[in-house]
Amino acid sequence: MGSIGKAEIRHSYDTTETHEASIDWNGNNYLVIYGRHINGWYIAIPNWQISTEAGTPTDTFYNTERLSAVMGKRAGRAIAEAVREHWEFIQWQREEEQRKEEEQKKQNEPQKQLDQEKHNKKKVR
Fold first, then answer.
1. Could you give the percent of the chain with pLDDT greater than 70?
2. Taking the model in full, what pTM does it have?
3. Is 103 helix (H, G, I), strand (E, B) or coil?
């Protein structure tokens, strides 16, 4: 039996976006992991042994085409649409969090000004 040789890691990359969703469709469950890698986007469905290059999560046309090649047109479209909906929900959540943080900062500004004025008065004394 011959040696298979040692694998060599040439590069390591940080990922910027990775998301996971459990999607039920047509009586089946799909554990979908999608995200961005060094060359673009991907969609993986490990419990169905599926992984493919993809477009942005909102590009349902391209993602449907990629997924349909390995899982059928109807399933590919359903998963691509679910990924888009999941992505849009995540973006909405982020926007809401930012809005709340900005609101909180605005509410805290008058108190910060009062605290600064008190601090300045102490210095003058």
1. 90
2. 0.77
3. helix
Cβ 66 vs Cβ 56: under 8 Å:
no
Closest CA to 66 of 79, 78, 56, 52: 52
Structure-token pair, residue 81: 């649409």
Task: Give yes or no for a contact between 77 and 68, defined as CB atoms under 8 angstroms apart.
Answer: yes
Q: What is the pLDDT of residues 7-56, one digit of tens each?
A: 999 999 888 799 999 999 999 999 999 999 999 999 999 999 999 999 99
Place of tokens 């601090």: 119
Q: What CA–CA distance (Å, rounded) separates 84 from 64? A: 11
CA-wise closest residue to 19 among 49, 54, 71, 48: 54
Give the sheet arrangement for strand 50-54, strand by strand. Answer: 18-25, 28-37, 40-45, 50-54
Instruction: Tell me the HSE value of 99 on the side-chain side, using a 13 A CA sphere.
Output: 6
